[in-house]
Amino acid sequence: MTDKTGITELGAGLSRLGLRLVATSGTAALLRESGLDATVVGDLSGVPELMGGRVRAFHPSVFGGLLYRRGHPADEADVRRHGVPRIDVLVCNFRDLPPDDTSEGVLDSIDVGGPAMVRAAAKNHADVLAVVDPADYGAVLDALTAAGGRVGATDPGFRRRLAVKAFVRTAAYDRSVHRFLARLAESRPGRPRP
After folding, report:
1. What total number of domains does the chain contain?
2. 193 falls within a domain
3. Among 5, 8, 81, 164, which one is most buried in terms of CB atoms within 10 A?
């Protein structure tokens, strides 16, 4: 998560509603510093962060938790059989790549897992809230509070609006990656490195 504005307040609100907090190591540390109980995503999946943090959330426990359709018999059977945890709210944001930077070091800052999780949550917005903007945290807490902490009891239109915003955000992010790679290719013509 790039922008941690309001994350401890959101975490506190979600905790009060009975939701378990799971985060990457940096965000989990921030939540813990605020006195909240937060599990590191690697503890959820059983796989630690790898390759300097490049691989964190790519695991069936995470994507299964985001994509499984509540009440769908085959999905429910898979969840039980494989111990896939339920993920009801995904909070994830990321910044566009710098518009004028063509240094190859920017490649390391390309977020792969975040946009993939956002897409998964937004695809399954009937059962999962995809939250990409700190400006929405208050509305998310209000909606969940009114629904007794149950995502499926929140207004379907609200869930769809969050999903639309999530896909708009990932599309903008992908455009920024495209612009960066195109500028890099223009500034360093030649064959791609192996």
Report:
1. 1
2. no
3. 8
